[in-house]
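In this section we walk through a basic example: taking a raw amino acid sequence and producing a predicted 3D structure, encoded as discrete structure tokens. The instruction is simple. Fold the sequence below.
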Amino acid sequence: MNVISNSPRGLLMLAMLAGTATAGFAAQPQDNPPPQADVAATVYGTPPADPAAMAPGPEIKGIISARHGEKIKVTAADGTATIIAVTEATRISASKGLFGSNSKLGAEALLNGLPVTVRTLQSGSGLVASQIKLQNKDLRVATMIRNGTDQGFAEQTAATEALRGRMADIDQYNVKGTTNVNFDTGKAELSAQAKAELCTAASSAQGMSNALLLVVGYTDSTGTPDFNQVLSEKRASRVVNYLQQACGWKPYRMLTPTGMSEADPLADNTTPEGKAQNRRVSVNVLVSKAVDGM
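The resulting token sequence is shown next.
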């Protein structure tokens, strides 16, 4: 999985992750048995009020993939997710750069999609953040994305158009094509047809110089938002794994996958036919405008 940096690709990864409003702290059952999440999330209990009574914990590096009350979920590059409590004693600071000064921030700055380094303390079975560090540049992008996603997308007719509204640096890329593969209700298994379509899309993209793939998972409106968030993430991860393992797509040409739950439907969620179209993963082929056509 690529590491977030100052590059357009890094900002694009940040933008897509920031579009995930929740990340399934608790999945509820529906008419089909709930699938297991792709990431290993460790849930910790409520820490004591006195930080002095806690032993040092591990340093956690990753992206804030969800926030629920006074807890944040930080997902590392390998997909491991850790839930950490944030208290009034937590020091939150943003650096202006390698040699820049730090500025103190409030907990409201901890936005979804933000890369952070968290120093923790242990308390029983729980982790609490003693210090959270981030970069000012990342905070600016995350804030812009958060404000943009509040507008909603009621009239999209294609997943590509929805993605254009959610990417901070989409203007630096041309979307050369979008392939949608569909799933059964509550499931994340790829059909034989979906597998064939994925390898066809990868083969076509291989011929485009500097092409990147951006994979986004979606659900229909069946089930709870928390369940659908986990399901959309699992569908996206399944597609990424198949593209890399079976279709030969190189991991370094893959942007971080994300799940968008039931956001941005392609069709009417009140009909069986519409729901079938919305249970999808979109594979978007992106090429930088700087090299497109060269």
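Looking at the output, two observations stand out. Helices lie at 8-18, 136-149, 159-166, 192-206, 225-245, 272-278. The chain has a mean pLDDT of 74. In the next section we compare this with other chains.
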